[in-house]
Specification:
about 110 residues; mainly alpha; 4 helices
Length: about 110
Amino acid sequence: MTQKNELQNQPAQQVSLVKPILVGAGIALAVILFFVTGVDEAAPEWGKYWMIRPLIITPLAGAAGGAFYAFMDYQSSRGFNRGLAIFLSVVVYCVGLWLGVVLGLDGTMWN
């Protein structure tokens, strides 16, 4: 008599990491574009290419928030409370987006 382990018979669920990262970066890019394109005339001390820094840093922060969401989605598929996972993902994303905007606009619009 052999006993089969039921966990070995279940197919592994593939968690896509790319989609949440792209969605997080896209939302962050839209947020920072709202602020950056609202500037009519940049201050001369900001430099000629002042927009590059916020347009790089903020989407990276959003992508990190999206990666955290993918990680929490993976954890919820393994037994973690799904409601708590979504709540933590939203809180971490919002804090990360706020920090990305502050770091991106530091020295220019955020002075």
